[in-house]
Write a structure and sequence with these properties.
Rossmann fold; 3-stranded parallel β-sheet; 10 helices; 11 strands; binds 5,10-Methenyltetrahydrofolate; hydrolase
Length: 285
């Protein structure tokens, strides 16, 4: 029976480091501020927003939530984003994705100010993740995965990591970050043949596909570490991951729960990146 590894101690440690930095910034008259841009009311977005608001208020970081209508046009969205870009009181910008289909992410990603882009939307920040350059902003969820692995002393060097999912928010960047730590990385997705077989070769299995409880013990090698990045809402309206936690735990050595796992660390990483952005913009680093 595997051990559930929770996000809370990892998040607490990250928050502890940030607290002093916020104090220092505030003493100099700078109020760190995050601007969230949400289009519509997707349950995953709402969950992230709720978590983010809680963490930012704990840490005394200002947040502005911009809830834009589901049917907003591309032009209106771009105009709005440009306004947030040029608002000097805002240091970090988080745009929930995926955006509705009338909005072209391939255009918008060039509009967001890379220095305020705390969740790696801008191609400039994406490039840095792929280059292993830590001067930019990695996406918060993959960064949270790496924080979890580090905190729980999971060895990556030379190990076989399998990532299920190839999104720009989770799968692709987390694969590059695992590669940087010298894992041998396989990226799987909905078209992968013999998925359970490939997944069950993993020492570390990272799941981010957005399909509730899809991954069961058939996908898990004995003693593997399972990191569940999925945030889904089940039939009863409860939050659940992409893995069937209980079933996977029969074989896994360590497994992250949902809620209370990676998601709870993501929001702390977000706060950390807002502070990094704030220091960058106010010249205090
Ligand atoms: N650009 C972008 N980046 C994302 O990383 C992103 C996104 N868009 N769109 C939505 C999904 C979903 N997501 C969550 C992150 C944390 C929690 C979280 O804090 N969850 C808490 C529970 C919070 C609550 O519901 O009260 C937990 O798992 O314990 C939830 C969901 C990130 N996503």
């Amino acid at each position: 029976m595997g051990t559930l590894i929770k996000g809370k101690p990892v998040a607490d440690k990250i928050k502890e480091d940030i607290k002093a930095e916020v104090k220092e910034l505030r003493a100099k008259g700078t109020i760190p501020k995050l601007s969230i841009i949400r289009v519509g009311a997707d349950p995953g977005d709402i969950s992230y927003e709720r978590g983010a608001l809680k963490v930012m208020s704990e840490l005394d970081i200002d947040v502005q939530v911009n809830a834009l209508p589901e049917n907003i046009t591309q032009e209106e969205f771009v105009d709005f984003l440009k306004k947030v870009n040029s608002d000097s009181s805002v240091h970090g910008i988080l745009i929930f994705r995926p955006l509705p289909k009338q909005l072209d992410e391939n255009v918008i990603k060039y509009v967001i100010d890379a220095n305020k882009d705390v969740d790696c939307f801008s191609p400039l920040n994406v490039a840095k993740v792929f280059e292993g350059d830590e001067s930019g902003f990695p996406p918060c969820t993959p960064a949270a995965v790496m924080e979890m692995l580090k905190y729980y002393n999971v060895e990556l060097k030379g190990k076989r990591a399998v990532v299920i999912g190839r999104s720009m928010i989770v799968g692709k960047p987390v694969s590059m970050m695992l590669l940087k730590e010298h894992a041998t990385v396989t990226i799987c997705h909905s078209r992968t043949q013999n998925l359970p077989q490939v997944a069950s070769e993993a020492d570390v299995l990272v799941v981010g596909i957005g399909r509730a409880k899809m991954v069961n013990s058939e996908y898990v090698k004995d003693g593997a570490v399972v990191i569940d990045v999925g945030i889904n809402v089940d039939e009863d309206g409860k939050l659940c991951g992409d893995a069937d936690t209980e079933d996977c735990a029969r074989k896994a050595s360590l497994i992250t729960p949902v809620p209370g796992g990676v998601g709870s660390v993501t929001t702390s990483v977000l706060a950390k990146q807002v502070i990094k952005a704030c220091k960058l913009q106010t010249g205090s680093c």
